[in-house]
Design goal:
Length: 269
């Protein structure tokens, strides 16, 4: 790939297949391009959603997909679900397992079922040599315990957990992905952003959710990941180009060469 003239941004976690984007998905991606967001990781949360994510990544430049079962839907875990996800994970455009993990806030699936599905997806990621995107909400102790034996590279998405899970992530070399929450006035992290390892921090939108200030309360979209990067830069005393370069290098390391070979646009094109 020809060298780019300036650093670009990667949105490390976006639900671009969500129905919220059905009316204007191409326009959303054009706004991302204009904002120098040149790659978006499209997250899958069920086999059906993961298939949509893969189709989007296959059909549009600058996108990669994940395939997984969200803890909200963990009650649907079965041998058939595992087989469908494994088939999707064999596609070149599908670069990670997930979104998986534990969510004890909503408890949409029984906790033992969540743990079983999470454990199975951690094993699948290790088997296939893919990173795994992890959701943790009010379940730090169990997530930390389950990650202790993880044999796959872990991305802790929209990280806002406490010291216990942070330390567990540090022990296994996990990546910490920050979202629009770090722009919220009342956000009070248990772990300072300055403690995050420079070579393992990512930026994400979690769009259409968690829109950063000044867009809070509106539909989030990949173009807004720059606001997250700006907030991270302020916390670290770093410029936006420095944060863009750092987080993009990290995203390319964890998600693979596809992030360099398929971009929303080339610089100065």
């Amino acid at each position: 790939m020809p060298p780019t003239a300036r650093p670009y941004l990667v949105d490390a976690h976006c639900h671009l297949g969500d129905a919220a984007f059905d009316p204007d998905r191409d326009a959303v991606l054009e706004r991302a391009r204009q904002a120098d967001v040149r790659h978006v990781i499209v997250i899958g949360t069920t086999p059906e959603d993961s298939a949509r994510a893969a189709a989007l990544a296959r059909g549009r430049a600058g996108l990669s997909a994940t395939a997984g079962l969200h803890p909200h839907d963990a009650a649907a875990w079965s041998a058939d679900t595992a087989a469908r996800l494994k088939a999707l994970l064999g596609l070149p455009e599908v670069v990670a397992v997930g979104e998986t993990g534990l969510d004890y806030h909503y408890d949409h699936s029984p906790r033992d079922t969540q743990r079983r599905a999470f454990e199975a997806q951690l094993a699948l990621a290790a088997e296939l040599g893919k990173p795994v995107v992890v959701h943790a909400r009010e379940a730090d102790e169990d997530v930390a315990a389950m990650l202790a034996g993880a044999r796959a590279t872990v991305v802790l998405h929209s990280f806002s957990s406490g010291a216990k899970l942070f330390e567990a992530g540090m022990q296994i070399g996990a990546y910490f992905s920050v979202s629009g929450m770090i722009t919220f006035q009342k956000w009070s992290p248990a772990v300072s952003l300055t403690a995050y390892p420079a070579d393992r921090v990512l930026v994400e939108t979690d769009a259409p959710y968690l829109a950063p200030v000044p867009h809070r309360g509106k539909r989030n979209e990949p173009a807004f990941v720059g606001r997250v990067a700006e907030a991270l830069g302020r916390a670290l005393g770093a410029s936006l180009p420095d944060v863009a370069q750092r987080t993009t290098d990290n995203a390319r390391r964890v998600f693979g060469a596809r992030l360099a070979s398929t971009l929303l646009h080339e610089a100065d094109s």
